[in-house]
Write a structure and sequence with these properties.
The chain is of the alpha/beta class. 46% of the residues lie in helices and 13% in strands. The chain folds into two domains: 188 residues, P-loop containing nucleotide triphosphate hydrolases (Rossmann fold); 54 residues. It has ten helices and seven strands. The model has no long low-confidence stretch (mean pLDDT 84).
Length: 288
């Protein structure tokens, strides 16, 4: 009677081992706040993904927002130094430099004092997992700046309640090594239709509106951003052009930048940057 040798069973055993490996749960994510200066929070894996290079512009290139720049810089410097600091809501028109300012200030502080501050981006849809994120960074010796871009809430969205508790109202409260910076196009984070609907359907309209509007009050600083005037827009364009060595006659640069803003229907830092990207591409110059 013929028997199978060990060699005959080899391929079968390999297939079984491979199948078992695929069925095994994924290894737990390792979170190391010393691995980088910036991270992205992945709620599904409870993982802080290190970001080696942050997409940003230099602080000196941001024009027309001098007052809010200085306020935010001072607040962040105090926090990085271990002193009390406020959560910040940066609100206003699209493309006016809200998120760019947060990233630029983070970079400027770490340039002055390496690894002083970790920037952690949390997506708006992951706000309900914010308590889990805080439990990971609570007690860490690293100062953490949590950043949520384009934060807002719509009808039937109750996740703002968990954010309120984390900011100020919960038993544990916000860890001493964490501040939250959020950007929004809405000053009160709620759409006008949402607020009006609450006012019209609630038994006590004033209390219903107050419940939602009070969320923005949990931010100690409100910094407003607005569309820039023609002079400031042109100053932003000139600053970018000089920084990236785009050798274009001033009259031509001004005319092309003005035409670009007209086609976009707005003047802002974002529109200026998009024009510079187009101009640099035509001139064959990099902007990185």
């Amino acid at each position: 009677m013929k028997t199978k040798s060990d060699a005959d069973f080899g391929p079968l055993l390999y297939r079984i081992a491979d199948a078992l490996e695929r069925l095994a749960p994924a290894a737990a994510a390792v979170n190391d706040l010393a691995a980088a200066d910036a991270f992205i929070w992945h709620a599904d894996r409870e993982w802080l993904e290190p970001v080696p290079v942050v997409n940003r512009v230099a602080l000196g290139l941001l024009r027309g927002i001098d007052r809010v720049r200085d306020i935010l810089l001072e607040n962040t410097q105090r926090f990085a130094a271990g002193l009390p600091a406020n959560n910040v809501l940066l609100w206003g028109a699209r493309g006016t430099g809200k998120s760019a300012l947060v990233k630029a200030i983070h970079a400027a502080i770490n340039e002055a004092k390496p690894h002083a501050l970790a920037l952690i981006e949390i997506h708006r849809e992951d706000i309900p997992t914010l308590p889990r994120l805080l439990s990971l960074v609570r007690g860490s010796p690293r100062r953490c700046l949590l950043f949520c871009d384009d934060l807002s809430f719509d009808q039937n969205d109750t996740s703002y309640k968990s954010l309120k508790a984390v900011l100020e109202g919960g038993i544990e409260g916000r860890p001493a090594n964490v501040v939250l910076y959020a950007t929004s196009n809405r000053r009160h984070l709620m759409s006008r239709d949402m607020i009006e609907n609450e006012r019209s359907t609630a038994i006590n309209p004033a209390e219903a509106v107050e419940e939602k509007v009070s969320l923005s009050d949990r931010f100690g600083l409100w910094l407003g951003f607005h569309n820039v005037d023609q002079e400031t827009y042109q100053a932003i364009v000139r600053g970018y052009a000089q920084h990236f060595g785009l050798d274009v006659p001033e009259a031509q640069l001004k005319a092309e930048a003005n035409e670009w803003s007209i086609t976009r229907g707005a003047r802002s830092g974002r529109v200026a940057w998009q024009f510079i990207q187009d101009l640099a591409g035509r001139l064959g110059k990099p902007t990185t």
